[in-house]
Design brief:
Number of strands: 16
Number of helices: 16
Bound molecules: zinc ion
Helix content: 40-55%
Oligomer: single chain
Cofactor: Zn(2+)
Largest sheet: 8 strands, parallel
Subcellular location: Cytoplasm; Mitochondrion outer membrane
Main location: cytoplasm
Structural class: alpha/beta
Strand order of the largest sheet: 4-14-13-12-11-10-6-5
Enzyme class: transferase
Membrane topology: Peripheral membrane protein
Distance between the termini: 42 Å
Amino acid sequence: MAASMGTVAPLSLRVLAECRVSKARACELRLPHGEVPTPVFMPVGTQGTMKGVSAHQLRALGCCICLGNTYHLGMRPGPDLIKKAKGLHGFMNWDQNLLTDSGGFQMVSLVELSEVTEEGVRFKSPYDGKQILLTPEKSIEIQNALGSDIMMQLDDVVSSTISGPRVEEAMYRSIRWLDRSIAGNQNPNSQNLFAIIQGGLDPKLRKKCLDEMTKRDVPGFAIGGLSGGEEKDHFWKMVTLSTDHLPHEKPRYLMGVGYATDLVVCVALGCDMFDCVFPTRTARFGSALVPWGALQLKHKQYAKDFQPIDRNCSCPTCKRHTRAYLHALFRSDTAALHHITIHNIAYQLNLMLSVRESILQQRFPEFVQDFMRTMYGDKKYPRWAIDALASVNITLD
Ligand SMILES: [Zn+2]
């Protein structure tokens, strides 16, 4: 995959199997810090460590790629210190792959006082109140210092629930910012820059963005601007439109998606990579993910329940602890959060491994039917999931 100016992107994708019915595919993604089997879920880390989970524990769960948070890391300890620590890999003591975000989304979502101009995103630091301008070049500079295997372009993010000229403006600006990001990348031989497809919920704008961005020779593409509270019916139609027009030989990353049903459906629609704070965030509220939904371990009904969270789960939490123990622990100790976080990450990673196995064995449609039956025992499947799966020839009985 040759890029411009004689550089070769440090990424290759081998498609190992394609579902004969749907758009699902199983690939081997080669990155500077090792191979990543896809479809893959990437847990999200903040401040260089997963909340309550060490790099070592994450590795033990079989994780080969996780997210580092550019906004937080760029602010403190700051890119210079992280560069001295041999990049984010050295700082986190993580020898597997890392993906960093541009920092833009964090700003728009976390910082009220942000302003977007052609130059970049201007905002007030929540740490010291100083005015900061994050430009596409600055974002890449920080991500170059962090040394991540995959960097994300700064994009102009608008809420997926708004429509009108602002959506069009943001889409065109994101294309211009992609070009500035490509020009700013100092390490094209060791760090992959991904473009982010925008265009809101408007198929014409999405298609325009796809046409323009796929002309650029970037190593991979993300589908952005979704999963922000829009109707699911709009969501899946934008996802499938995107995968229809993205290049076959490059990875497709659907940003911010992490509910089990959404993962399975979007694999059927042709996506390879996913990230979401949901599994770790929900763990902090005592919610443990299981194939039939979730267990709210704070509830009294678990006080005398001496089963593991899931008897079919082989994670360290399920091997060692009962629901009753975790329930009791919640009253006194933050260790409960740690144990449930471990389990929830294991659940997501194992779900994707099962999805992948089924694609490799050409039984993905049957896998989806079984998964949905287990998740929605009463067969009250969500309408959008029925429609999305039907669009790729998988019918739910
Ligand atoms: Zn478990």
